Amino acid sequence: MEKQSQPGRPWGYRQMIILKQGGGEIISGASMKDVPNILWLEEIRKEDISSVGGKGASLGEMASIGLPVPPAFVVTAQAFRRFLVETGLDQKIFKVSENIDVENNAALEKAADTIKALVMKAKMPAALKEDIKASYKKMASKDLIVAVRSSATAEDLPDASFAGQQETYLNIKGEAALLSAVQNCWASLYGARAIYYRAKQGFEESTVNIAVVVQQLVHSEKAGVMFTSHPISGEPLTIIEGSWGLGEAVVSGSVSPDHYVFDQRTESIGEKAIANKKVEIIPDGSHGTKLVTVDAARQDAQVLSDGEVAKLAMYGKIAENHYGVPQDVEWGIVAGTIYILQSRPITTIGKKEAKGMSGQKNDAKILLKGQGAAPGIATGKVVIIRDVKDTGAVKEGDILVTRMTNPDMVPAMRKVAAIVTDEGGMTCHAAIVSRELGTPAVVGTKTGTQQLKNGQLVTVDGEMGLVYEGAVGGLAQAKGGTAVTAAPAGSGPIITATSVKVNVSIPEAAARAAATGADGVGLLRIEHLILGLNKTPGWFIANHKEEDFVKELYDGIKIVLDAFPGKTVWVRTLDAPTDEFRNMQGGESEPLEHNPMLGWRGIRRDLQSPDQFRLQVEAFKRLWKAGYEHLGVMFPMVSHPDQFIKAREMMRGWGVDVENVTLGIMIEIPASAIMIEDFLKAGIKFASFGTNDLIQYTIAIDRNNENVADMYNPQHPAVLSLIHNSIQQCRAYGVECSICGQAGSDPKMAIWLVEHGITSISANIDAIAKIREAVAKTEKRIILEAARNRDAE
Ligand code: PEP
Ligand code: MG
């Protein structure tokens, strides 16, 4: 049972009922009385976001894992709601906001001012006032200087900062100033821009809440930022930048900071560059800060001691391990005490610099939200493509916006700076191809083609899945947010017992894929070679151009084989759903299917179209003959061992020495996971989980349907159970078991897979470094635990 750790925290608080109204989150009357006015950091978890807002929840989460966060409490969203109800403000605000025409600027500004004045004039209920005062007293015996920050609670907004103005009041001292700052934060919820934004997003004005964080102000003597892993390659190198005074100097780029690199593998400082730090930012008066010249003695002095670097790196690692992804951390040090002020996932270096350069990021208007499918940031002009015939209009550096990309759009996709689609999830065509091209992409925005206009300037953040209006803070970063390196100079490659392979779909990505140092190719999707020609396999056959088809396959596959000498390359036979063929020459002969995902694709199509299958096998045969023995063939969409046996027999009939080549299957239909032992008995040489499909077929969630994207769960127990069972069976038969679905690019899943005995993992190019690290760590941990257990016996 949960323990009451602070006064005012009632039992059963987590059982509060949340009602969803008009897109916003509101806490029901039943729970209103259960959630206290004040929550202390130590008792907050990230699930408490509807009570403490995004900022409060993230501070609480950091404190809960032992990071030294400055002491704080939160005036909850429920306290705000009590304030509104008890003062009758809820009705008054509702009256004013009910009829606002948000497109009429003057009317909007006037309404916003009226509401803000109402909030500021209202008398805070006595009980609430007492709670805030008592908590403030509890923080420190005498008047403590605090920062008071609003923390928006509308958690399903793309960026909660748009829900409220995120007003912050620094240097607040004394009860009266504190109470007024809290009320000011509440009023900031009703800024004109915030009201406009909420109206546009369909949020019920009457249901939006705000929490307020009251935190000890850290007047850092030295401060800065830290990337817990290398922000581009993902290597375990913690990068710390620090300077004198408040952290703003480093974040804003007004000073060249000291630069330290801490290598987590050797647990030592690898690099240290001490800068000449001419200026620092220090507190000024009651609210502000000022830029002053650093005294001569400190200008060239090392800001951080080696011990502080190591300690900061350790905190960074704690945060990274907890959140599962590398973090961008802000820190400060006062009188030798380190404070962690903020931690958020790293996006890219380009983004960070941009935020610092202009500080505009929070002001930029988000136009669209979708899934961040390929990392990187790009700014450019929108070009909307409604039909593949229009791709002629696409120019170098444009932002391609379309319902969904098709293989025949790939030439245009190569030119553009970023891609935005209405439909699709992390494994759709646009996502797969963009990742390989290294082009930022946001998929599944639902309304991109309707909301954006041709020629409009936008900035696409392919990591966060956001599209901003205009050029955001000059953060435009050319492609390359997904740059890859095998290992840092001088540190040697990370060797793992579990092979870490790479997925390739387009031959032009082969060199980038090989540069990761991957142990082979766990999936080469050859349909992209054919689809790029804009002709269906049926067209080649009907027009007696079989030789062209074979040559195209031969040449494309050869590029990848050449990039991975001596390493296995599993080439998958054709697996394109009929709708992907439809726009191409010959597409008119494709059957019209209601659900192509469950339709005529993969091995079932090849078995029924021997001509099509034979041409692929002909290309493989020629490659084997040319000495490319490291080529293995993988059959997709297999649901019964008979299909594997039949395919093998057909190959034998076409002259393939099937006993001596490597033939395996994808496990992407639950039937093949359930019947894995029969496949093993039938003689498969390897099996690879195609989790993109396995998940959709196991839990009945269309992988390309943005409406159910949030229910697409790679770690659904049923999926994990199928995977676990298959791995164990493969191990029993000594057969290589791998994964090539998108789930294999998630470090958390990789850890689980290694723990469950997988032989290899094939990930996306941009994920190799982090997967390799996750695998290496997990293996080491397993060995260590085994050794400890042995010692204990
Ligand atoms: C899969 O299903 O996980 C897979 C890798 O195949 P595709 O995404 O091409 O269907
Ligand atoms: Mg698949």
Descriptive account of the structure:
- With 793 residues, this protein is of the alpha/beta class.
- The chain is 37% helix and 21% strand.
- It has 29 helices and 31 strands.
- The strands form 6 sheets. An 8-stranded mixed beta sheet has the order 16-23-22-18-19-20-21-17.
- Helix 13 (410-415) links the parallel strand 19 (399-402) and strand 20 (418-421).
- The longest helix is centred in the C-terminal third of the chain and has 25 residues, at 768-792.
- The protein is globular, with a radius of gyration of 29 Å.
- The two termini are 34 Å apart.
- Residues 1-32, 155-165, 347-362 and 473-492 have low confidence and may be disordered.
- It binds phosphoenolpyruvate (PEP) and magnesium ion.
- The site of magnesium ion (MG) has 5 residues, from helix 26.
**Radius of gyration (Å):** 29 Å
Counting DSSP E segments of at least 2 residues, the number of strands comes to 31
**Helical residues, percent:** 25-40%
Low-confidence runs: 1-32, 155-165, 347-362, 473-492
Label the overall shape. globular
Number of helices: 29
Biggest beta sheet attributes: 8 strands, mixed
Quick take:
With 793 residues, this protein is of the alpha/beta class. The protein has 29 helices and 31 strands.
Features:
alpha/beta, eight-stranded mixed sheet, 29 helices, eight-stranded parallel sheet, binds magnesium ion, 31 strands, disordered N terminus, binds phosphoenolpyruvate, 793 residues, 37% helix, globular
